[in-house]
Design goal:
It is built from 14 helices and 15 strands. By secondary structure, it is an alpha/beta fold. It has a nine-stranded mixed beta sheet with strand order 14-13-12-11-7-10-9-8-15. A six-stranded parallel beta sheet has the order 3-2-1-4-5-6, sandwiched between helices. Helix 3 links the parallel strand 1 and strand 2. Helix 3 packs parallel to helix 4. The longest helix is centred in the C-terminal third of the chain and has 20 residues. The chain is globular. It binds nicotinamide-adenine-dinucleotide. Nicotinamide-adenine-dinucleotide (NAD) binds next to helix 3, strand 2 and helix 5.
């Protein structure tokens, strides 16, 4: 590993986004692994998270080499390769120019080259890429969410089953499951320290994310692919794309997936030309089989209260995770636990440490089924806010909901599944009028 670049890379990247971060111990320590079989790594989706995940995989195990890369766009792939080259030498970054693949079909060629694959494109493509990786017998690290529609969820559930049968490791980038503060609180809730969870509030309220404005020479397909956050077939709306983290914590801590959802949402400030079709706020109530009710809020509006956290009320006390106040306390006021994060490792790194250690030891991690069910929870929430109706899990799963076109319909010249209407706008869901179960 090249040692001059730590300061520069740490400057631009943090735990929070899962970008490239070098742990000081990695820069200075001797190799921690005995010489073992080289594991060949491929990355599909060479953006911010793809680059971060490659860096973490290479730091997790000294005998991993990146051998293939795939991206829809040449410039994105080249930029990520250039950034990684500042950190790792050719020994680790062993990507022959002929193994850099570009375009919609590039994933197949990259996956075929590897033992382990990182899937980090926008989530609309995840089911297709995951299915192929599992069919090819590869271990997988895939980012959340794992789909944007119900058809995709069903595909991921099938592939998760196959991965299990074939003893493949699958880690999903819901990194709170690999974060010590969450694991400590989870353990104590399981022990019954705050009793049975009866309600909770989960939040991802922030100022929003990047916009990639339309360029004159782009086709409609290229525009949507580059500005993917604002198109549901690619992104799934921010209730799915970001807030899944907090919704997933509710599912995890309660130990169930909700049976129904109802809620409201809309767009107040997201009215620009490049804001596509997604909402800027959603509020959903999820009801669980055991009776717990979780209120979920997500907002992308600047100048408002920012909060990314989870609070649960049990029969005996409360828990608080996220932010700086991770703790458990009883209703009597007694503080049962306060988390001290001084020794916590970067959970984005821990995900890869555990993935490669499991591959080496033969222990199997399979996060895919939970990844699919938590993604489905957020999709059900989106159906509730778009329609303004109450949606049950079974209705949602049986709805035939499909946003992502079949692969043979994707090309730079073809129309994406959503296009501008006669008034020059993308169709935006209207609660009470839109009935978006299809
Ligand atoms: N776990 C986390 O905290 C976390 C943090 C950031 C991002 N993510 C997830 O990672 C994924 C990617 O996000 P990002 O921020 O890296 O986005 P990005 O736009 O920076 O990168 C996505 C890359 O995928 C490429 N791509 C798009 N379609 C493709 C296709 N069909 N085949 C190959 N390449 C394709 C794009 O060209 C782009 O380079 C998202 O699902 C996001 O939710 C997770």
């Amino acid at each position: 590993m090249k040692n001059l670049t730590r300061r520069k890379f740490v400057k631009d990247s943090t735990w929070v986004t899962g970008g490239i971060v070098l742990a000081p111990s990695v820069l200075t320590s001797k190799p921690m692994f005995k010489i073992e079989k080289v594991l060949k790594l491929a990355v599909v989706g060479c953006g911010g998270r793809g680059a971060g995940a490659v860096s973490q995989a290479l730091q997790a195990d000294k005998n991993v080499k990146l051998v293939a890369m795939a991206d829809a766009f040449q410039d994105r792939l080249d930029k990520t390769f250039e950034n990684l080259s500042k950190m790792f030498d050719k020994e680790r970054l062993a990507v022959n120019p002929s193994k850099k693949f570009v375009g919609f079909g590039s994933y197949k060629k990259a996956i075929e080259e590897a033992d382990v694959v990182i899937l980090a494109t926008p989530p609309g493509f995840r089911p297709q890429h995951f299915e192929y990786a599992v069919e090819q017998g590869k271990h997988v690290f895939m980012e959340k969410p794992v789909a944007t529609d119900v058809a995709g969820i069903k595909k991921v559930l099938n592939s998760a089953k196959l991965a299990k049968e074939n003893k493949l490791n699958v880690v999903v980038g819901l990194q709170r499951h690999y974060q010590r503060s969450y694991l400590e609180i989870y353990k104590r809730i399981q022990q019954g320290d705050i009793g049975k969870i009866v309600s909770g509030q989960v939040y991802w309220n922030s100022g929003g994310v990047w916009v990639r404005p339309r360029q004159e020479n782009w086709t409609e397909m290229e525009y949507q692919m580059r500005n993917w956050y604002y198109f549901n077939w690619l992104c799934g709306d921010h209730i799915l794309e970001q807030h899944i983290h907090n919704i997933d914590v509710a599912n995890w801590f309660i130990g169930e997936y909700p049976i129904k959802a109802q809620g409201m949402g809309g767009r107040e400030v997201r009215k620009g030309k490049d804001h596509g079709q997604i909402f800027d706020h959603h509020f959903v109530e999820f009801e669980y089989p055991g009776g717990a009710v979780i209120s979920s809020q997500c907002r992308h509006q600047k100048g408002c209260l920012n909060r990314v956290s989870e609070i649960f009320q049990g029969t005996l006390g409360t828990s608080n995770t996220g932010g700086t106040k991770t703790a458990l306390k009883l209703y009597s006021g007694e503080q049962l636990y306060t988390h001290n994060g001084d020794r916590d490792k970067n959970p984005y790194q821990v995900e890869h440490d555990e993935l490669f250690s499991s591959i080496r030891s033969g222990k199997i991690i399979n996060d895919a089924e939970n990844g699919a069910r938590s993604t489905m929870t957020a999709i059900m929430g989106r159906m509730a806010t778009y329609t303004g109706k109450q949606i049950t899990w079974d209705e949602a799963m049986n709805s035939g909901h499909k946003l992502v076109p079949n692969e043979d319909l994707l090309s730079w010249q073809s129309n994406p599944p959503v296009v501008l209407n006669a008034s020059g706008n993308y169709p935006i869901p209207i609660p009470g009028i839109t009935y978006d179960k299809k």
